[in-house]
Amino acid sequence: MKAAIYQGAQRFEVKDIPRPQPGSGQLLVKINRSAICGTDVHAFMYDIAPAGSVIGHEIAGEVAEVGLDVEGWSVGDRLVAGGGDHPEGQQSPMRTDPRYNYRTMGFPGGATGGYAEYQLLPAWRPTRIPDNVPDAAAALTEPASVAVHALRRSAVKLGDTVVVLGAGPIGMLVTQAARAAGASRVIVSEPAPARAEAALRLGAFEVINPLEEDVVARVVELTDGHGAEVIFDCAGLNDTLDQAFDATRRDGQVVLVAVPWEPLAVDPVNWMGREVDFRVSFASLPEDWRIALDLLSSGRISAEALMSEASTIDLEDIQATFEGLMKPSSQLQVVIALE
Hints:
Blueprint: E1 2-6, E2 12-16, E3 26-35, H1 38-45, E4 58-66, E5 78-80, H2 93-96, H3 102-105, E6 118-122, E7 127-128, H4 135-138, H5 141-153, E8 161-165, H6 169-180, E9 185-189, H7 193-201, E10 206-208, H8 215-222, E11 228-233, H9 240-246, E12 248-256, E13 277-280, H10 286-298, E14 312-314, H11 318-325, E15 335-337
Parallel strand pairs: 8-9, 8-11, 9-10, 11-12, 12-13, 14-15
Antiparallel strand pairs: 1-2, 3-4, 3-6, 3-15, 4-5, 5-7
């Protein structure tokens, strides 16, 4: 089977490797679509992915083979690679290790991820794709679950004004999840024209260009001088977290969704007098996957709106695509077609 092997030093090599065979309790999945995640771009950019590994975790595919002692799955069943509850004793260290550190420990997982034609999964882990959700949309279930998790950890209430800083794929999914959670208005900050237009199509009340306007001043103006109830930082840039705190109303909340890899500057004296709450949101739980699939199926989250004609690439294009994604970009979601 074809797979993109990470060689280290920001270099992939696409080559043939043996197709795995499912063992007891496992499914062999034929991957049809594999979305490129921002955490994978970080792993590439900072050269932290193990050399010789196949990364990627945002997949949609179908069962190719069923291992022994597997019930409830048949060849041809469509699935995403998460949403199942961990068996007792097999919970992820990400949720159980009291000193878990993403920077030093990374995501736990197997040797072969989603940038390949086939992947082995434990039979308890996947979730079926609803019939009305195409593979390209289903491949965004994992990032949609990240957005769902962020909203479920937040204090968003019916009728709130929410701000989303950054309209990359996660920011646009958070925008839609916030509307689904009851936010009356979602204000988005995004400089890239294509992403700004996409955010408006997805229901943003207004998009602020941070290169042309003072984000804090504009948010305060749009909220009658109070600030927003909840602000999600989905950019993680040097100034966005401080902007989030500064644009939040008294007793409001800031939720950090982006994963910054560099120190961020904040100036607490400007906003701590308003007693702003702060939460972080990281990855997702199985129930978030199931909620995300329901939102995709019902149309309350649109994956198609995150994609352009340039969104689908072949596996052979992965090196150039990752190099491009390391730079500031107006690109929307990128999905690898493996059919």
